[in-house]
Design a protein that fits this description.
With about 270 residues, the protein is α/β, with parallel strands linked by helices. It has four helices and 13 strands. A five-stranded mixed sheet has the order 2-8-7-6-3, with helices on one face. The chain has a three-stranded mixed sheet with strand order 1-9-12, with no helix packed on it. A three-stranded mixed sheet has the order 10-11-13, covered by helices on one side.
């Protein structure tokens, strides 16, 4: 399923214009450094840190408030000889060795209070978060190459059942997610592939927009998609409607990337945004 949020175009894009745009998108993306990083590098589709509490059962309200306000205390000595590198196993079977941040650096990062604090710790609303231990484990992370298990420091906190998680991968090993070129069409997709040769698009459109279908431009390595949308030019209420539509490909998608014709960027597969 693709989720598209659109504000509408002021003219209907003709088939020729769509093809020209799709070819431009393909030429810009294929073989680029962003393409290589997306397929073979480490591109996180989530904000890695602050990761927060392990999502196992309810978190005490005081613990969340205390963490937000930076009410941390070290009740142990953090190891000085912790591992400096670890392996990441990718869905295609390849393995990358990535550098790790130290436990001290991880603690220093997450123990800072939030940039914006709505409410200072009330007298009975916060408690010191006393760190009593730390271990290296793994947590799932959404990347451009699929969901992988990545090394993470798990901090034990007195009085809280859940561990406090900090992804241990050093930022130097991660490539920043590509951004769209300024002034290009703003769209947002989520993708869940159904049948091998079909893409189901769920998209949002304005109250005065007319939808004439969806279309795709295919190459051996890429598929560029858009919704054939027309904006009436009228003053419209800010109401977002939703609909679904299917694009049938000429052959199964396979390992081809799907690109958004508006942003020129890959369509990600059902990533949970934080």
């Amino acid at each position: 399923m693709l989720l598209l949020s659109s504000c509408g175009w002021f003219h209907r894009v003709s088939p020729g214009e769509f093809k020209d745009r799709a070819q431009e998108v393909v030429a810009r993306w294929q073989g680029s450094s962003a393409d290589r990083a997306w397929r073979k590098g480490f591109v996180s589709l989530e904000v890695m840190n602050p990761r927060g509490w392990a999502r196992v059962g309810p978190i005490p309200a005081w613990a969340n408030r205390s963490a937000h306000n930076g009410a941390w205390q070290l009740a142990t000595t953090l190891p000085a000889d912790s591992p400096t590198r670890a392996n990441v196993h990718w869905p295609d079977g390849s393995v990358s060795q990535v550098p790790l941040v130290t436990t001290a650096n991880a603690y220093a990062e997450f123990s800072e209070p939030a940039d914006f604090i709505e409410e200072e710790c009330p007298a009975k609303g916060c408690r010191p978060l006393q760190v009593t231990g730390v271990e290296l484990d793994e947590v799932p992370l959404e990347t451009s190459r699929g969901t992988v298990q990545v090394p993470a420091w798990l901090f034990t906190v007195r009085g809280v059942k859940q561990k406090y998680v900090h992804v241990a991968v050093d930022p130097s090993a991660v490539t920043t997610r590509p951004e769209q070129v300024q002034n290009e069409e703003v769209t947002a997709f989520d993708l869940v592939v159904g049948k091998p040769d079909e893409l189901l698009l769920q998209y949002g459109y304005g109250a005065c927009d007319s939808i004439h279908g969806a279309r795709a431009y295919e190459t051996d390595h890429l598929v560029v998609v858009d919704v054939d949308e027309e904006y009436s030019g009228e003053m419209c209420p800010a109401i977002l409607k939703t609909a679904t539509i299917t694009i049938t490909l000429t052959r199964p998608l396979g390992d081809r990337l799907v690109l958004d014709s508006g942003t020129g960027l890959p369509v990600v597969r059902g990533v949970k945004r934080r």
